Amino acid sequence: MSMQVQDAGARWHTYLTEMKEEPITLLCHGGAEEMALHVDFRDLQAWDPDFAVGVLEHPREIIREGENALAALCRELGHAIDPPIRLYDLPPDVRRYLHEIGSDDIHKMRTAEVIITRVSELKPRIYDADFRCVLCGAMMPVRQESEQELVEPPICDTERGGCGAYPGSGKGSTRFELVIESTRMINNQFLEIQELPEEVKGTGQPARATVLVEGDLCNQFLPGERVTANLLPYVHSEYRRNRRTPMFQIVHRLHSANRESTPFTEIVVTEDDEERIREIAAEPDLLTLLQNSIAPSILGSGKLNFVKRSLVLQLFGGVSRKNADGTRLRGDIHLLLMGDPGIAKSQLLTYMSKISPRAKYASGGNISAAGLTAAAIKDAFGDGRFTLEAGVLPLADMGIACIDEIDKIGSSDRGSLHEAMEQQVVSVSKGGITTQLKARCSVLAAANPEDGRFSKRGPNQSLMHSFKETGLPLPLASRFDIIWMMRDEADPQNDTNIARHILQSRLRGVAEARIDQGVAFDPQREEEDQVWADGVDGGRYLTVGFLRKYVAYAKRRYHPDLTAEAQALLVEYYSAERNRAEAESGDYSGSEVIPMTPRQFEALTRLTEAHARMHLRPEATAEDAGCAISIFKHWREEENIKDEAEMQSGVSSSKRNARSRVQVHVRDLHRERGEAELNEIYNRCLRENITEDQVDDAIQTLLRNGIIFEPHTDAFAIS
Which pLDDT belongs to residue 112? Predict the structure, then answer.
C-alpha cells in the first residue's frame, strides 16, 4: 500500500496530463457542466491496470493524491480551484448488496444499487481549518478528515514559524483559536439509503445505511430516487454510557452516483428468457393466459375475470410522454376495486405487489408518518433538524402503489392523491422543506363500505351510489381509469365452485412446518426458475418470476405509438358516444349528459397502448384499440356510468336537471300567481316526465340552499 500511495501523485499527474487535458481546461475556464472531473474507470484501467486496482483497494488516499495533482495543474493554468475527482463505471467485482457490506469492505470502493429514503438539510463543514496560536500569533493549518470532531494542532510547530508551545492550561502552554475567515468549508448532507426491495430474499427487512454526501454532490438527490452509488464505507465508534465500545457502525461516504436511466434493469432477462417471452407473446389468446396468471389461487368467475383482465393492462401500462411545452402525459393506469369484505381484494393487491416490478404495498390502517406522500421527520440523523422521508407513492416510482383500505387513510393524505395521480408528482411543503418528489406510478386501490356491506343498487343507479358509501371524496373517482364494484351475492353454482377451488388450493399447498423442518420442498422456490405452472383447475399459467420478467422486458423495450387506423377508431368511438348522449338526453329541456370527457379519452388511449405493449408491438393497431374500447365499454355499462359529471359531483344528470326544472317552474308560478303551489309544480313537472319523488328531492335541496322558501304549507316562492 505504501508504495502505491507514495507513487500515486506522480501517476495521477501523468494520467491527467496525457488523458484529461481538455476536460481540465474546461474546468478551469468554467465550461464544464459540473465542478468535478469525471473519470471513467475503464479508461483508467486500460491506461494502467495495477494503478486502477490500487484505487479500488485504497481509494481515499490515492484519490486525495489525484485531487492534489489536479489542483496543482489548475494552478499552473492560473486558476486556484480544487475540483474533486469522481470515478464512474466501476467494475462488477466491487458490486455488493447493501446488507453484504461488512468489515472486509471498510475503506474500499464499493458499488450498490439503492433507493434513497431520506435526505437531510444542508450543513457546512470545515475542510481546511486555520488555527492561530494565542502566544505568538502563528497560523497553523489542519486538514479536517473526520466530520465527527474538530482536530486542533498538537503543537505550535516551529517549522511553520510557531513558538513550539503545546496546548494546555499550564505555564508555557498555549491554546489555539479557529480563524473562520481563512477556513475553507464544504457543504455536507446526510442521506438514508435502502437496498432495493427486489434484492431482499424471503420476508427479510431491506438493509438501511447512512451516507455522507460532500461538495458538488449535495442537493442532487431526492427521496424515492434509485441510484447506483459508489461508496467508501468507514466506521463510527458506538458509545454506551459515554464510553466507547468495541462495536462500530458502518457509515458510507458517497464518492459518485449514477441515476437510473433505463427502468427495470434490476430484473435480469437472459437471451433464453427473451426467446420464451417472444414465444408466449405469439400465443393466440394471450390476454386470457395472462389474466389466468394473475392470482391463480383466486377463482376467476363472473366479474372477477374482467377485474383480472384490467389488472393485466395495468401491469403493462401505457406510454408516458413529454411535450415541447413542458407538459407531461401520464401512461400509468389507475384502478379502484370496491367490494364487500371477504371477496379477495387484499389478496389481489398483495399478488400484484409481488408481480409488478417496483411495487409497494400499504394498508390504509397502518400507513406510517410519511403516509402516502412524504413527511418532514425531526432528528432523523441525530442533529435535531428536519429531514424529508418519502412515502409510498414516491417509493413506488415507475411501479405500482397498491393501497389497501384506502377509505381508512386520513383526509390530508387522500387530498394529496389528486395531484399524485394526475400530475404524478408530490408537492411537499413541510418543516421548512419545499420541493417536489416524483410519483410516476400506477395506483391500485381497494375500498370497503363504511357500513360493512354495500347496499344493492337500483336498476337506474350508477356506481357513484356505491362510491358514496366508502366515504371517499367524490372528485377522487374521476382520477381512476377503471372502477370495479364487486358484491358478495349468493349464487349456488358459483358458491360451489369457489368452495371446491378453496379446498383444492389448501390440499395442494405444503404445510409450513414441514418446510421449516426440511422434510418438504418449498413450492415457491421450486417455481422460481420455471416458466409454466399448473393450476388446481388443470389449466396452466405463468409463474410469478417469469411474469415479472415478461412485464419488465415489455416496459423496457416497447413504447408503442398509435397507428392511423387505431387513432381513427378511438376518435370515432369518442365522437359517437358524445353525440349519442346528446341525441338521447332526457325528455325535458335543460338536460345535459356528458358520457365522456377528454380525461376518459386519455384513459382509453392508455388501455390501447397497454394492450399493444402486452403483445410486444412497436405500434398500437386497430385491434388494440378495439380491445381497449371493449374493456372500457364493458366496465362503464356494467357499473351504469352514463354521466361523467356525476363522477365529479355525485349528482346524476336526472337529479341535476330535475332540480333546474323545478326551480324554473317555481319561479314562473311565483311570477304568475305570487306563489307556487305544490300540486301545480307536480302537474307541470309530470308533463316533462319528472316524478313526484324527484320534485320532492329537488325542493328540499332548493330549500336547504336558500334559493326558495316556504311562506306556508305546500306553497313556495323565490327568495
Answer: 93
Q: What is the pLDDT of residue 379?
A: 56
Cα dihedral: 42, 48, 49, 53 (round 10): -90
Yes or no: say if 252 and 210 are a contact pair by the CB < 8 Å rule. Answer: yes
Domain CATH for 48 = 3.30.1640.10
Chain segment 33-60, per-residue pLDDT in tens: 678 889 999 999 999 998 999 999 999 9
Q: Give the range of the structural domain holding residue 26, as residue numbers without chain letter.
A: 2-89
> Is 548 part of a structural domain of the chain?
no
Burial class (CB in 10 A: 0-12, 13-18, 19+), 650: middle
Residue 439 within a domain: yes
Question: Residue 310 has which C-alpha cell?
Answer: 384490467
Pairing of strands 226-240, 243-259: antiparallel
Distance CA 676, CA 432 (A): 58
| Domain count across the chain | 5
Residue 522 falls within a domain, yes or no? no
Q: From CA 229, how far away is CA 258, in angstroms rounded?
A: 7
Q: Are residues 209 and 102 in the same domain?
A: yes
Q: What is the 3-state secondary structure (H, E, C) of 367-391?
A: CCCCCCCEEEEECCCCCCCEEEEEC
Residues 219, 151 share a domain: yes
pTM of the model: 0.76
Examine the domain organization and report whether 350 and 466 are in the same domain. Answer: yes
Q: What cell was used for 215? A: 461538495
Residue 224 in domain: yes
Q: What is the pLDDT of residue 336?
A: 94
Amino acid at 200: V
Bridge-based pairing state of the strands 208-214 and 243-259: parallel
pLDDT tens per residue, range 377-386: 765 565 566 7
Match 417471452 to its residue by C-alpha cell.
277
Of 200, 201, 276, 271, the C-alpha closest to 530 is 276
Task: For residue 487, count other CB atoms closer than 10 A to its CB.
Answer: 15
